[in-house]
């Protein structure tokens, strides 16, 4: 009989590798050699650092690879790969289902917010501003959660 921890580690590795590969292969398919280089850079970041760093780095790479905007189908496929990177990280926590649901809900809400902003304004800079503000609020919320909950558990 297999150890549950071994199965969990294997599942985490499968999710993480396939998510990074989806992002890399999608960039290659839609952008050729530049996409291949970007995909390899994302895979290296994932392997050397961590999935969360690869998630952040990937969004910077997207700005470089698609300076004039991106098709919604391409962004949906790439963001699904990014979501997989975060889901793999969430599996390490005590209540992974809750965290995975939270990540999924945040991605859907963020997608609707960004899509709605673009639909209403048509300006990429405004969409970037809305996206940055929403992510800043999320990061601040995580920071406050860390201070209130985790600090109390430590004492």
Overview features:
155 residues, mainly alpha, 2 domains
Structure description:
With 155 residues, this protein is an all-alpha fold. The protein folds into two domains: 1-92, no CATH class; 94-155. The chain is built from five helices and no strands. It has helices spanning 4-48, 51-65, 72-90, 96-121, 124-154. Helix 1 runs parallel beside helix 2. The termini are far apart.
Spell out the blueprint of helices and strands:
Elements: H1 4-48, H2 51-65, H3 72-90, H4 96-121, H5 124-154
Helix pairs in contact: 1-2, 1-3, 2-3, 3-4, 4-5
The end-to-end span amounts to: 39 Å
SS-derived structural category:
mainly alpha
Helices and strands, in N-to-C order? HHHHH
Number of DSSP E strands? 0
> How many strands, which pairing sense, and closed or not: the largest β-sheet?
none
Count of separate DSSP helical elements: 5
The overall number of domains is: 2
* Mean pLDDT metric: 75
The percentage helix is: over 70%
What is the beta-strand fraction? under 5%
Overall geometry comes to globular
Oligomer: single chain
CA radius of gyration is 17 Å
Indicate the low-confidence ranges by residue numbers. none
């Amino acid at each position: 009989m297999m150890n549950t921890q071994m199965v969990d580690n294997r599942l985490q590795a499968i999710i993480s590798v396939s998510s990074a590969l989806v992002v890399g292969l999608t960039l290659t398919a839609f952008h050729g050699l530049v996409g291949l280089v970007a995909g390899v850079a994302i895979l290296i970041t994932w392997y050397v650092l961590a999935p969360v760093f690869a998630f952040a780095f990937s969004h910077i790479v997207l700005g470089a690879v698609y300076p004039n905007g991106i098709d919604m189908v391409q962004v949906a496929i790439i963001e699904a790969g990014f979501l997989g990177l975060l889901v793999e990280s969430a599996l390490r926590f005590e209540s992974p289902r809750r965290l995975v649901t939270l990540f999924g809900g945040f991605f859907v809400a963020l997608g609707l917010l960004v899509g709605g902003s673009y639909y209403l304004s048509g300006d990429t800079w405004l969409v970037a501003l809305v996206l940055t503000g929403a992510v800043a609020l999320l990061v601040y919320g995580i920071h406050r959660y860390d201070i209130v909950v985790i600090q109390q558990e430590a004492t």
